[in-house]
Write a structure and sequence with these properties.
The complex is a heterodimer of chains A (about 500) and B (about 120). Helix content of chain A is about 80%, strand content about 0%. Chain A contains 20 helices and 2 strands. A two-stranded antiparallel ribbon of chain A has the order 1-2. The longest helix of chain A is centred in the last third of the chain and has 35 residues. With about 120 residues, chain B is mainly α. Chain B has a single domain, classed as Orthogonal Bundle (Helix Hairpins), CATH 1.10.287.3510. Helices cover about 60% and strands about 0% of the residues of chain B. In chain B, helix 1 packs antiparallel against helix 2 and helix 2 runs antiparallel to helix 3. The radius of gyration of chain B is 20 Å and the shape is elongated. Classes of the chains: A mainly alpha (about 500), B mainly alpha (about 120). At the A-B interface, helix 5, helix 6 and helix 9 of A face helix 2 and helix 3 of B.
Chain lengths: ~500, ~120
């Protein structure tokens, strides 16, 4: 039996049964949210394992067995098409969402309207999972909007504070404009080629890349860069991510900008446009934005006094690394260097999801116990909250890229490939890391500094908040101990599969 | 010649983007987003329209089918897409309105320039 549709069915059912479950008991509602997301994780893991084992792309047609129309040779139905990259990101999404939900059991305990909160968080998860498994470009837009609307609502969830509302409004206007651009691009593509299936679109574009298809690419790429928070359109991210509740910040920074931004960029550039355009130019455009993002994001992180805002800017910087990997992968398409860069980008996507989720959970724990996230008031936290401080230490070391942790391997792959491709890019990447290190060292000094008034009463948070942090720490350390094995067995095949756009097309259209 | 629907759609999108960039009232910004969406919907729906031998096309759901045999039909997919997109647009609109009401409660103003407390 094909388990793929359950990736959507389970969270959808969980989300909309939540108000009913709440009528039974509030306790059961919390457990229900955890159970649903745990089942989703199992399904995602199963899908990933199947694809990894057989090295085959899974194609699922909604409502039929074959995507092709009766008696015609082209697809007329909505298809879901999952390759290794999609499955890998899906596992990451399900994993971090599960931890975020466990974390919110305690973190959101004193908020009201929690059934709506859990409904929205499951819809957010569902939207992201949909994005990574879909093979139809309009279906992609629908899932993108499901994800976006849920995240706008979640950023503004605490509507009794001005912070959430202001951030929510800014996020919403920018995000909706970006979505409109993406829809415009999709409309242009449909008008030109008369199909919405990604694989068939790719088949057509390879045959005749027209001017309209390039304009459409510009619109879609612009919209997706907005959504992934690349410089110069990153300002919404620095407002929205800190203002959300911390469990949501972890999902937004760890997952949403990956699934709705970077993943979609990779999918559209490689699988749809692929070899048909002047790939070197396209790669350099992405590299240009990546370098800007890398420098500006990390440099802005240094001067922040608000801990969550610092993490948010650091997210912008890390998106820069991922885009750099994708850009080099495009510009050096088909060579060993390009493949290493792409593997590094994919690896860093997964790693950053774990590290940034951990850091935001730490920020949430501090906010929960001390009541402030201003770094000037938080000095000397390490003695009062040892476990939280340790979690921060691990997360910060991983994000800087210290060797025994997982960030090292992915950053190394990106440095190595950029140095081989163009030494100037490697210099930029290392400069970004220098800024990143400065920012985190500053927080570290605050944590281990002299004890201030505010932190006298602080202690480590309760079990439901500590367990997700411990799981993330373990994941980071274990992934850090086996960097090259993971790279060889998972990341390189994933990069290879993404590069072979011909296979992506054949999986739908058939031999 | 470019069909006039496309020109209208283009003008609507440009109007929306102009309003989005230069208006400062939250309600007007929401309307601007809606105008951009309308432009895109017009573009999509006119993609499905085709005139064959001067005969006006009919909607695909038209049931008096036998009498109209041989007349061209408009493309059904753009209509489905626009329906979906309208529903999404309504969701965004409703959420935006809800947030605007909340913003008015906190700030006492609908001016987006007043929403500047987040700094760092």
């Amino acid at each position: 039996m094909n388990v793929l549709p359950f990736l959507i069915i389970v969270p959808l059912f969980g989300a909309f049964s939540m108000p009913l479950i709440k009528l039974i008991s509030e306790k059961f509602r919390d457990i229900w949210a955890v159970i649903i997301s745990a089942i989703t994780l199992c399904v995602a893991a199963d899908v990933f394992y199947t694809i990894w084992k057989t090295n085959q792309i899974i194609v699922y047609t909604l409502g039929d067995t074959t995507p092709l129309g009766k008696g015609v040779g082209f697809p007329i139905r909505i298809v879901w098409e999952v390759d290794l990259l999609g499955a890998l990101i899906a596992v990451t999404i399900a994993f971090v969402s599960l931890l975020a939900i466990i974390y919110s059991l305690e973190y959101m305990k004193y908020d009201t309207g929690l059934d709506k909160y859990y409904t929205l968080i499951l819809i957010l998860e569902l939207g992201m999972l949909g994005i990574v498994i879909t093979g139809d470009i309009f279906n992609f837009y629908v899932f993108l909007e499901i994800m976006s609307i849920a995240s706008y609502a979640l950023v503004a969830f605490r509507n009794d504070t001005w912070e959430g509302i202001e951030a929510g409004i800014k996020y919403m206007f920018v995000g909706s404009l970006a979505s409109s651009f993406i829809l415009l691009g999709i409309a242009l593509l449909y008008g030109q080629y008369g199909t919405l299936t990604m694989a068939y679109l790719s088949h057509y574009i390879t045959r005749e890349p027209t001017f309209v298809s390039k304009v459409a690419l510009a619109f879609i790429l612009g919209g997706l860069l907005f959504k992934s928070g690349a410089v110069p359109v990153h300002m919404w991210l620095a407002d929205a991510h800190p203002a959300a509740p911390s469990s949501i910040s972890a999902m937004l920074s760890g997952l949403v900008i990956k699934a709705g931004g970077v993943y979609a960029i990779a999918r559209i550039l490689f699988s749809i446009y692929g070899i048909s355009l002047n790939i070197r130019t396209l790669g350099w455009i992405v590299i240009f934005f990546a370098c800007l993002t890398l420098i500006v994001g990390n440099a802005m992180a240094v001067v922040q006094t608000d801990m969550k805002r610092l993490f948010a800017f650091s997210s912008v910087g890390q998106i820069g690394y991922i885009l750099l990997g994708i850009g080099i992968g495009l510009a050096a398409y088909g060579t060993k260097v390009g493949q290493i860069a792409l593997a590094g980008a994919i690896y860093h996507t997964v790693n950053h999801a774990l590290m940034k989720a951990l850091l935001f959970l730490v920020a949430g724990a501090v906010l929960h116990e001390v009541g402030t996230k201003n770094l000037n008031e938080l000095s000397g936290l390490a003695r009062k909250m040892p476990l939280t401080s340790f979690a921060f230490l691990v997360g910060a070391a991983a994000i800087i890229g210290l060797p025994p942790l997982n960030g090292f391997a992915s950053k190394w792959l990106i440095y190595e490939s950029s140095a081989l491709y163009n030494p100037f890019l490697a210099a930029v990447a290392v400069l970004g890391t220098a800024f990143c290190t400065a920012a985190y060292i500053r927080v570290l000094f605050t944590f281990f500094g002299k004890e201030s008034e505010k932190v006298k009463e602080a202690r480590d948070p309760g079990k439901a908040m500590v367990i997700p942090m411990i799981i993330l720490i373990l994941a980071i350390i274990i992934m850090g101990l086996l960097p090259w094995q993971i790279n060889d067995s998972i990341m390189l095949p994933t990069a290879k599969m993404l590069e072979e756009s011909g296979k992506y097309v054949l999986a739908v259209l058939g031999g | 010649m470019i069909p006039f629907q496309f020109v209208t759609a283009f003008l609507l999108i440009c109007m929306g983007i102009y309003a989005f960039l230069y208006k400062r009232n939250l309600i007007k910004l929401i309307l601007a987003l809606d105008i951009i969406d309308s432009g895109i919907h017009l573009l999509l729906i006119s993609l499905g329209y085709r005139l064959e031998n001067g005969v006006l096309p009919t909607a695909p759901i038209y049931t008096g089918y036998e009498t109209l045999k041989g007349t061209p039909m408009v493309g059904p997919i753009p209509q489905a897409l626009v329906l979906t997109s309208i529903v999404i647009g309504v969701c965004v609109l409703a959420l935006a309105m809800a947030l605007t009401i909340n913003a008015y409660r906190h700030y006492g103003s609908l001016d987006i320039n007043k929403l500047r407390r987040l700094r760092g």
